[in-house]
Amino acid sequence: MNFDLKTLPALPGVYLMKDDSGDVIYVGKAKSLDKRVRQYFQSKKNLSPKTVTLVRHIDDIEYIVTDSEIDALVLEANLIKKYKPRYNVRLKDDKRYPYVKVTINSAFPRIFLTRRRLMDGALYFGPYTNAKAIRTTLDIISRVFMLRQCKKKIEPGKSRPCLNYHIKRCMAPCKGGMEKEEYHRRVMEAVRFLKGDTSGLLRKLEERMQSLAQAQDYESAADVRDQIESVKCISEQQIATSGTDDRDVLAAVSDEKAIYIQVFYVRHGSMVGKADFTLLGADVSESIEESMAQFVKQYYQDSPIPPEILVQYELPEKELIVKWLCQRSGRDVKVHVPQRGEKKKLLEMAERNARMSMRMAQLKPAPSESAIAALEELQKVLSLKSLPLHIEGFDISNISGTNAVGSMVYFENGRPANNKYRQHNIKTVKGIDDFAMMAEVVHRRYSHLIKSNESLPDLILIDGGPGQVSAAMSSIDALGLDIPLIGLAKRFEHIITTKKGPDEVIILPHTSPALKMLMHIRDEAHRFAVSSHRRRRSASLTHSELDSIPGVGPSRKRVLLENFDSIGKIRSSSVEELAALEGISENLAKKILGYLCK
């Protein structure tokens, strides 16, 4: 290790542990840097398995001295968010439920949907699990209260009203159409509605629906009826609790992979929503109390802090955390472990929900019967240890080595997961070398998965023959991984393995479910690679020195670049070579060379 522990000061601060590549792999805080960091290098008997692995990878340590332990806590959370170290607990938000934000601190407040809660003095309602219903509700608020939606600076009488004013969705305070006091009265009516007092709005909507029905405007009446249902849907999400306090309820459960946390939001005595979170990189052999403390520090770094937070366990460093929460919120904050009563029941309900989230994470979408048959055959034919539920397929696309693109497609339970597809622009390989390109793409993909501590596939499929398979396998071996890897050659649809000798090729009948699945993955990787290459090639054709030459339009530019690959090769060609191309006359060829060679 390139660090002398004797240089550590006995002061509060943050330490950053780095590996031999210079990457930050762990960030921690300490009341005394000297005492805390030395604890990592004591007898292995006193360390958890995760800490032993961490210490083995430490090559250097940096530290930042702070004025206090609270400053160190804040800095630690910021650095974890910045570097995302491999061995730190990292907060993953499984779902970003929407909130309704009311900019109550502005002269003419707006009401709109947002996915982030900030400490900015605004009012927040939610989160809401039914995004469609809350969008409809905001549309109703716009119709009924006619509040502004635009972001323009309000200077009454100095600007023209937007379209919302003309379609009767806004009273146009920008043109002086409403006094500030009347505008705020409407805002507070909307706020009361968002707090759960829906009776007034529902009454107005029902009266309007009856009026439209009596006028035989049944289509408009049906629209208002749907609006009423949306308002009722939102009000049903609010579970009544006793009292009028605001609080967050935090419960956690864990399995051998991660820690799952459920947060219930209680606002004005009603439970208005919940959210699921996962702590990645957590050492489940350590206490769940420590993980919950890490969650609180990361979560409330940029989220509003309620007056009370209910937790299952007493948190380590509770006094320090509470002091930090009070400083951030500007008022007293209680972190409480309820022992009985309604708060205890609410915490138990949150724990049940956390357990359900964990089970849902453990249960992947069940593959179809045909997919199971194909996967079972693959497992048998390839002698795999388990079903290849997660397969990644690779292909390369380029024209004479230019604009080369590598594609990665992701199949889960025999089905494509399009949101996990990845495109890699070739960076290190020059010229025509498909083998080296394949090696680069595979190395970049799995070095990234290792660095980000993500799960590896059960099987890798390469579009190509022995050369591509060998190149890809060299990257897998260089990374020290043990992942089954095969290729699928297009001509005879033979499976190419990494074994030597007579078992190097596996031939399956064309009716084989396993072969059909491999062909599907291979064809999807090829399709994605070609479409990615086309996009990149089109982008490269968009801007070029050729654009400034009179007589050279998009079609001629494409012909030139597809035949000569680059501007440099065009510049070094002859008039005869250019004139031989379709659409290029001898005079135009002279003009092109004259422009490029001047």
Description:
The chain is an alpha+beta fold and 598 residues long. It has five domains: 5-88, GIY-YIG endonuclease, CATH 3.40.1440.10; 99-237, no CATH class; 247-362, Nucleotidyltransferase, domain 5 (2-Layer Sandwich), CATH 3.30.420; 369-539, UvrC, RNAse H endonuclease domain (Nucleotidyltransferase, domain 5, 2-Layer Sandwich); 543-596, Orthogonal Bundle (DNA polymerase, domain 1), CATH 1.10.150.20. Helix content is 42%, strand content 18%. It has 19 helices and 21 strands. The protein has helices at residues 33-38, 49-57, 69-83, 131-145, 163-166, 180-194, 199-214, 218-236, 288-299, 318-329, 341-362, 369-382, 434-451, 466-478, 513-542, 554-564, 567-571, 575-579, 586-596; strands spanning 13-18, 24-30, 60-65, 90-93, 99-102, 111-114, 123-125, 239-240, 247-254, 259-267, 270-280, 308-310, 334-336, 390-399, 402-412, 415-416, 422-425, 459-463, 485-488, 495-496, 505-506. Strands 14, 15, 16, 17, 18, 19, 20 and 21 form an eight-stranded mixed β-sheet that branches. Strands 4, 8, 9, 10, 11, 12 and 13 form a seven-stranded mixed β-sheet that branches. Strands 2-1-3 form a three-stranded antiparallel β-sheet. The longest helix is centred in the C-terminal third of the chain and has 30 residues, at 513-542. It is globular, with a radius of gyration of 31 Å. Residues 238-244 have low confidence and may be disordered.
